[in-house]
Amino acid sequence: MSPFFVMSLLFGLIFGQTASLCAPSEYTIHVEKQECAYCLAINTTICAGFCMTRDSNGKKLLLKSALSQNVCTYKEMLYRSALIPGCPHHTLPYYSYPVALSCKCGKCNTDYSDCVRERVRTNYCTKPQKLCNL
């Protein structure tokens, strides 16, 4: 084995395990209300990416502090509101959504994050679409 290969392998093992790839990522949310005529496509940023997780087969032998289940979550965020077009006067036409300013690897907070990763396809429009770039 060449010294370059060995050094590359060691570098990857040392720094690859500690580096996370958690950062704000562009995302499009599709929002519609039954009473409104249009679906609104909102471009925003969410936290997405890889966070290092340690989970051992010997859970009973280790302290809880040795185990971590980190997720990519919000460090700083703000909420914006968008007006859904085509709503009747008796309907609240506003939709509030989060905008990720910065992200971190940490424990999942169910107050503002969905901590379960299920593949349910619900981010689509059934009505004519309007685009909102805020």
TrEMBL record:
Origin, by domain of life?
Eukaryota
Q: Where in the cell is it found?
A: Secreted
> Which residues constitute the signal peptide according to the record?
1-16
* SMART domains recorded: GHB
Which PROSITE patterns does the UniProt entry name for this protein? GLYCO_HORMONE_BETA_1 (PS00261), GLYCO_HORMONE_BETA_2 (PS00689)
Which terms does the UniProt entry file under GO BP?
G protein-coupled receptor signaling pathway
UniProt lists the family membership as follows:
Belongs to the glycoprotein hormones subunit beta family.
Q: How does it assemble?
A: Heterodimer of a common alpha chain and a unique beta chain which confers biological specificity to thyrotropin, lutropin, follitropin and gonadotropin.
Matching PANTHER family: GLYCOPROTEIN HORMONE BETA CHAIN, THYROTROPIN SUBUNIT BETA
Q: What is this protein called?
A: Thyrotropin subunit beta
Task: Specify the species.
Answer: Thryothorus ludovicianus
